[in-house]
Design brief:
The chain is mainly α. Helices cover 71% and strands 0% of the residues.
Length: 356
């Protein structure tokens, strides 16, 4: 709904500025850039770990190689990026489908696909939902590429709803398969539950497909993350919220090359220097804040631009804020401090900027 009205690079950074004011737009853009830069580093290490078959010292080196390769593709233009994304998606779905079908066909133990809640509390369930939001946050990244899409007012809403629907169906099918074969306890006990299900069915050889699919899926996620963060940096630089040099667009390939390379450098630094195992909570906080501002922005739309009733955006706003505040306390505190630091830094830079 927002992308159809504002078909520009930057996503909610642009929507917040246009609908709520410059400060809210900056908070959305800053939360997205910081949170998703950490996500990029996490995906680079994840892809390298699966490619190497487990944790290894070479994971950082391989992760940097993957990062460099994707960054090069991103600087060649959106068409090449889209083609690579299509190939990665096809391989991912083929590997996941093959793994799921083999496990389902050869599994010897089946049970009702249910999970007991045990001693679960409302707070624990909400915290889990906030952390799992990390796995759904890619659907609206399509909107950050608004000005590079043909017929954005039609293409973007269609692509977002279809992408989200397909992902939910895929997650649901895999979750039900795992619950029916190894159960909730088996899922909780394994870092690689699909592989555990394959081993329980005596088809561990299917782990080859699983490793390939997981590696390619992580690479695909990293590709989408890098492109989305780069376009948001471009939009913020155009409006002076980040150094204007980052707004340079390659005249040949029509991509924000400088912004893309700066993002890649920041991700490389995190890959080398940071323990990323706890980055998901921090990233989820930033992304939930980003989507809260998106819902608030959509609430203000009127007339022909409105596609969905206001109560949907109201429920989305409340849901995002509740999930953000029920994340692990450390993630909430660090996320709030980083966002506040960005706002204060922006004000300090604005005070130092000469007045024309």
């Amino acid at each position: 709904q927002l992308a159809a009205q504002f078909p520009e690079s930057g996503g909610t950074y642009v929507y917040g500025r246009e609908c709520l004011g410059e400060s809210w737009g900056f908070v959305a853009g800053w939360a997205f850039v910081v949170g998703k830069t950490a996500s990029c580093a996490a995906m680079a290490i994840t892809a390298a770990t699966y490619a190497l078959g487990g944790e290894a010292r070479a994971a950082q080196v391989v992760g940097l190689g993957i990062l460099a390769t994707l960054s090069f593709v991103l600087t060649r233009g959106i068409t090449k990026t889209a083609r690579l994304a299509r190939v990665l998606l096809t391989i991912t779905l083929a590997c996941l489908t093959a793994t799921a079908l083999v496990v389902a066909a050869f599994s010897r133990q089946w049970s009702a696909p249910t999970a007991g809640v045990g001693e679960a509390t409302a707070y624990g369930i909400l915290q889990s939902a906030g952390l799992l939001f990390f796995a759904f946050a890619g659907y609206a990244r399509i909107a950050t590429l608004g000005e590079e899409v043909r017929s954005p007012e039609v293409t973007i809403p269609r692509a977002i709803t279809r992408a989200l629907g397909v992902v939910i169906a895929l997650y649901a099918a895999l979750a039900l398969l795992l619950l029916a074969t190894i159960g909730a306890d088996g899922i909780a006990a394994s870092a690689l539950p699909l592989l555990a299900a394959a081993q329980a069915a005596d088809v561990s050889w299917v782990g080859v497909f699983l490793r390939v699919g997981a590696t390619v899926a992580s690479v695909g996620a990293l590709l989408g993350l890098l492109s989305g963060v780069g376009r948001t940096v471009l939009a913020m630089a155009r409006r002076g919220d980040l150094p204007r040099r980052l707004a340079a667009v390659d005249p040949v390939h029509s991509v924000p090359t400088v912004a893309q390379l700066v993002v890649a450098a920041a991700v490389a630094g995190l890959v080398l220097l940071t323990d990323l195992r706890h980055a998901i909570g921090f990233s989820s906080f930033g992304v939930l804040l980003y989507y809260a501002i998106a819902n608030a922005s959509a609430w203000t739309q009127t007339g022909a631009y409105r596609r969905w009733p206001r109560w949907i955006q109201g429920a989305g706003l409340v849901g995002c804020l509740v999930l953000a505040l029920t994340l692990p306390p450390g993630s909430v505190v660090v996320g709030a401090l980083v966002v506040a630091g960005g706002v204060l830094g922006r004000r300090w830079l604005a005070a130092r900027r000469p007045t024309r």
